[in-house]
């Protein structure tokens, strides 16, 4: 039997640009440039989810952490990337929840299934909580001095390739579908990045040159930041109702977003390092300040400066990476990095599971034409990457 449940993709008022908003009533939504009045509807939440028991929500979230714990040894045994195992487990959980909601055999598990698919975690949680965690931890793990030796290929792959792939996918999808160009460029920004986890693991298994792995890892960090900055840029045009934006003006805005975000992140990190140096003997204080840093940098850049919060987080992390080891006690610095490793592991795993939970429900409305458009996107992305890579040879 079919049950109505909460839409996770619905946004709160004042949400960061992350989804296309439904149109029914007027509300004011902030995005990186300035507030604009936009039509937005109230989320459709069933009465059960509105009054969802905190005990049930806590139980489900705790169970997801059990799934995360089981996924790591399972991935090692099957010799598959952890992200693949997490996504598969998330799809299985989502499929099971849908089955219990639709089946006529029993209604006993309906509350649990409804709660799983209607967890009160909105899209802005991914942008403001999970994303800064992942990016900040990645910057702390980088060997910046070695990366600077290969800055040319890293820059080309992380910035130029992302822009080329975004434009290639956007125009190809616009040609093949009836979607407006702004929405197609938005999709291009989403798919223009690469996931290095599987590639790096293969490099290590075949003893590939460390420089090659270092370039891929450096690219993966910066191209995520560049793609998300482009995402926010094109999302602004979509939210403004501009189906065919001036591409020259949009790309001219891109360096401003990067520069403003980088400056905001650098300043935030310099202040944080200065405060942390004052509290050098208090390790918990140092770790607490480091946890606050990426979120304050992100919010400050997005809400106060009108720049890219993602770039601000990356700049803050790189600044702390350069300054922290010389200003903080060695053991405190090592423990700080270990804490961030755990936080990033949880954040990344929750992203994969929570996103995968929605896949079974989304596939219910898929059409044959959608698969053809996916093929267009894949071919355009591969062609764009090939052009950039051959240009480096």
Topology (SSEs and partners):
Blueprint: E1 25-29, E2 36-40, H1 47-50, H2 54-78, H3 82-102, H4 110-117, H5 123-141, H6 144-149, H7 151-176, H8 181-191, H9 197-205, H10 210-239, H11 247-278, H12 283-305, H13 309-327, H14 330-357, H15 359-363, H16 368-392
Antiparallel strand pairs: 1-2
Helix pairs in contact: 2-3, 3-4, 3-14, 5-12, 5-13, 5-14, 7-8, 7-10, 7-16, 8-10, 9-10, 10-11, 10-13, 11-12, 11-13, 12-13, 12-14
Provide a compact summary of the structure.
This protein is mainly alpha-helical and 393 residues long. It has helices at residues 47-50, 54-78, 82-102, 110-117, 123-141, 144-149, 151-176, 181-191, 197-205, 210-239, 247-278, 283-305, 309-327, 330-357, 359-363, 368-392; strands at residues 25-29, 36-40.
């Amino acid at each position: 039997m079919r049950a109505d449940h909460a839409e996770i993709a619905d946004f709160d008022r004042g949400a960061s640009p992350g989804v296309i908003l439904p149109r029914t009533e007027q509300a004011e939504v902030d995005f990186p440039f300035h507030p604009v009045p936009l039509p937005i509807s109230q989320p459709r939440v069933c009465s059960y989810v509105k009054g969802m028991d905190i005990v049930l929500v806590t139980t489900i979230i705790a169970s997801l952490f059990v799934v995360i714990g089981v996924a790591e040894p399972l991935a090692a045994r099957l010799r598959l990337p952890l992200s693949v195992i997490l996504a598969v487990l998330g799809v299985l959980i989502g499929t099971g929840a849908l089955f219990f909601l639709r089946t006529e055999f029993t209604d006993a598990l309906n509350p649990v299934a409804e709660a799983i698919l209607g967890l009160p975690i909105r899209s802005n949680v991914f942008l403001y909580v999970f994303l800064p965690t992942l990016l900040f931890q990645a910057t702390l793990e980088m060997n910046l001095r070695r990366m600077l030796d290969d800055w040319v290929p890293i820059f080309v792959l992380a910035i130029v390739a992302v822009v080329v792939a975004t434009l290639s996918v956007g125009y190809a999808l616009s040609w093949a579908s009836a979607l407006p160009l702004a929405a197609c460029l938005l999709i291009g920004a989403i798919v223009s990045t690469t996931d290095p986890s599987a590639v790096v693991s293969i490099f290590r298994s075949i003893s590939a040159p460390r420089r090659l792995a270092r370039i891929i890892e450096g690219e993966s960090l910066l191209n995520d930041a560049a793609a998300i900055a482009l995402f926010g840029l094109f999302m602004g045009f979509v939210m403004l109702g501009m189906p065919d934006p001036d591409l020259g003006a949009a790309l001219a805005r891109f360096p401003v977003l990067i520069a403003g975000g980088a400056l905001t992140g650098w300043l935030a990190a310099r202040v944080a390092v200065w405060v942390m140096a004052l509290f050098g003997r208090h390790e918990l204080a140092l770790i607490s300040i480091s946890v606050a840093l990426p979120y304050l940098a992100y919010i400050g850049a997005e809400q106060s400066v009108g720049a890219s919060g993602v770039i601000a987080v990356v700049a803050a992390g790189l600044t702390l990476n350069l300054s922290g080891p010389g200003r903080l006690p060695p053991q405190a610095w090592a423990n700080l990095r270990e804490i961030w490793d755990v936080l990033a592991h949880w954040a990344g795993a929750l992203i994969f599971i929570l996103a995968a939970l929605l896949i079974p429900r989304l596939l219910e409305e898929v059409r044959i034409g959608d698969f053809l458009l996916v093929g267009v996107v894949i071919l355009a992305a591969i062609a764009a990457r090939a052009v950039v890579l051959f240009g480096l040879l």
